[in-house]
Amino acid sequence: xxxxxxPYMLLLPAIIVLLGIFMAGLLSALVQSLxxxxxxxxxxxxxxxYLEVFKNQDFLKSLFFSLYIxxxxxxxxxxxxxxLAYLIVKSQYKEGxxxxxxxxxxxxxxxxxxxxxxxxxxxxxILPRIFFNLGIIRDQSQFCNLVFDKNGIxxxxxxxxxxxxxxxxxxxxxxxNLNKELLEVALNLGAKKWQGFIYVALPLLxxxxxxxxxxxxxxxxxxxxxxxxxxxxYPKALPVLAYTAYTNPDLTxxxxxxxxxxxxxxxxxxxxxxYTKFFRLLNDYNR
Amino acid sequence: xxxxELKNITKSFNNNKVIDNIxxxxxxxxxxxxxxxxxxxxxxxxxxxxxxxxxxxxxxFFNGGSVxxxxxxxxxxxxxxxxxxLFPHLNVEENIGFGLKMAGVKKNERKKVVAExxxxxxxxxxxxxxxxxxxxxxxxxxAFARALAVKPKVLLLDEPFSNLDTRLRETMxxxxxxxxxxxxxxxxxxxxxxxxxLMSSDRIIVLLDGKxxxxxxxxxxxxxxxxLRVAKFFGHKNFIEGIVRNGVLSTAMGNYPIQGIxxxxxxxxxxxxxxKLKKGTENSAGIVERSWFAGxxxxxxxxxxxxxxxxxxxxxxxxxxxxxxxxVIDFNEGVFFKKENYCR
Amino acid sequence: MKVLQKNTIYLNIIIYSVIILLIFPLAVxxxxxxxxxxPWPYLLPQDFGLRGWKYFFNPTSKALFTLFLSVLLSLIVTxxxxxxxxPAAKSLAFYNFRGKAFFEIFILAxxxxxxxxxAMGIHVQFIKLGLADSFLGVVLVHLIPSLPYGIRIxxxxxxxxxxxxxxxxxxLGANWWQAFIFVTxxxxxxxxxxxxxxxxxxxxxxYFLTFLIGGGQVVTFPMLLLPYIQSGDRMMAGVFSSVFVLxxxxxxxxxxxxxxxxYSSREYFYF
Lengths: 287, 344, 271
Fold this sequence. Notes:
The complex is a heterotrimer.
Chain A: H1 6-33, H2 48-55, H3 57-90, H4 95-107, H5 110-121, H6 126-133, H7 153-177, H8 180-188, H9 193-222, H10 225-230, H11 238-246, H12 254-286
Helix pairs in contact in A: 1-12, 3-7, 3-9, 4-7, 5-7, 7-9, 8-9, 9-12, 11-12
Chain B: E1 4-13, E2 16-26, E3 31-35, H1 42-50, E4 57-62, E5 65-66, H2 72-75, E6 77-80, H3 92-102, H4 107-120, H5 136-149, E7 154-158, H6 166-183, E8 187-191, H7 194-200, E9 203-208, E10 211-216, H8 218-223, H9 228-233, E11 238-245, E12 248-251, E13 254-257, E14 264-270, E15 275-279, E16 286-293, E17 297-304, E18 307-314, E19 324-329, E20 335-338
Chain C: H1 2-33, E1 35-37, E2 47-48, H2 51-57, H3 63-94, H4 100-112, H5 115-129, H6 135-161, H7 164-171, H8 176-205, H9 208-214, H10 221-230, H11 234-258
Antiparallel strand pairs in C: 1-2
């Protein structure tokens, strides 16, 4: 085999699958979003659907709702996760904690996470029961509903619950492997402990934190199950809105679903660009 | 045992010429070192001989026959890498027998060869051990035994001792040379350590920037480096500019009679052991600038006019820093480099 | 010294309360699966029963069969992903070539692009090709979220063992497949097992992709579970979720016992 071609040949099977399903899927969605859907006789390429969607109040509300959910949950998860990682590095009994934090997010899928939060936060959940027994509320109805609510509390809580262990473990690993001598050098040069954390550890962690943030943001922005199970009927999260448009029996509505898909994709492509920037930084530090 | 010849080998990676048109040959049973700094292309040369890297152009002959299109596994050039690369999932016996197993040799036959090899490298009784249970020196011996077990046509050693600590390195070097001589196996050793090359090889090939700068016996390359850079690579530090006119050498230090050197501008290399120091007087030209006591010898930097000369003296002559000394240089012992031999 | 100890105690209190907050909901879910009656406002079930579990294990409910089918599907996805990932990862780990950076990004892209967009886009083509509503179609579409993890992690595994050890085998006279079978494969085996377990769980957890491409014809375990959560049947949802979590956990433990751990499987994350 020509050695110049060899790396490409080795990549080929995986790339074929990715092109044939992933890229083909995206292209197909793009073409349909531009109004080309010959199955029902739509053959004119047009930006009309995009314009219409962007003028639609329901869509705009959904877009903001989705952005709000992803941003709130990701920011909260990153802050709590980083702090928790720092505390674990400082504490002693790590083995058990590591195991729990590592396994938990892997074995509990999002769907089950939604159930967990539903069990806790719904009007008949554990939290209002505790409040009742503590005498804080006197009746179920006094507890404002935290699932299916317009503020997306249930969705945000689910994502936070699911993402904290992920962020913690990613940051913890880096923090634990961080060259301790670097911190000692900083201390030796007169830095206080917190200064060492802020000026040495944190900058070195930033690429990791950044990429973790982007991964969880992108995931929560594009995921269907949690908002589908715990979201309010209005406004719907974008993926739920897209799916609703998709299942509309009138197939001429299909392009609207695809427009929303494309918008989800475009936001995530922007995120990929950011991610690669962090990725590059990450590689630079590790050199 | 084979003789090896490389003819006009060139190799580039990403438009960067790593090896630039090199040719050399190795006799049957000879031990040749390829010496050069890291990045000079010496490891690539070994890989080309082994067949792991295909040259862009040129020819390779084993015993006069081209092996350019012989695949690695059939070529018989066995590399020993500097990190030994024992297979961690196999024990010593399986490691040494690996090549034979690949060649389809029967199990009891393999056992015999393995026992023979273990005896050769003095590791009898280590068959069942795993690489992680071995010390650095033992790992190296196993790696060596594994290479020898397949009866290689040529043994290719890539910095085989640089992962060992100083004392072990010497022992292993002697040990390796002894076995090489005993088996008479054609061997090419790649190293950046000039002392290693000088001590262990029949011939040294100096490789700089992918080009062969000199090839010769250890004494030749040490005493008569072919160009300024080779001289500097061997650690020579005293270089003096001078002009030769009709048997007289003029330098900034003074004029000296000289024999057998044609007229011209030169850089003259004086080996530090060739400079003699004598107890001086008030009028002496040399001043001891720095000295380092190193046991059996002492290193000095002596200032003569604008020159800082590096010298070595035996322990029976000790000078203090700041002391005036007479400096005796016999320029007839120097190596004269013409401008075209600077090879920058 | 005393102050230091006090700090440590506070530290541990904070850490463990977060951990408990993370685990507590799981305990509640597990309790629900055994609850016969758990009315407002009691903090513990008033009566325990096995109705949900009996239903689950009853052959007529087909729950066990679905679980089996799900495991089978995920195993197939895992094997296909590994077979595709090994050469790709080797290429990325050992070679420098034009466009490498692009390929690296391209392979990671499915981690970030929402699967819903890809699945809804490809659905029409799958229908045309007869892949929709089929087991094969579901396997293919599960490859999309699996491949990035497979390739990325195996690339790290290959980088960790290094390229030279295979070259060493080659110069000792092994041809390329002997070098792969006798050297590379045993060395990457622990990595393969831990990546495999991750991919298994990724595939096992998929809902939307299976639901859309499988069109209700290919029923996997998450598809049995979702309606119970949606309808707020906490007892049945608890049973099915517990089975789900326990299956994943069991798989994990088996895998951890199998690996003699040259590598720690903790290096890889997924959420």
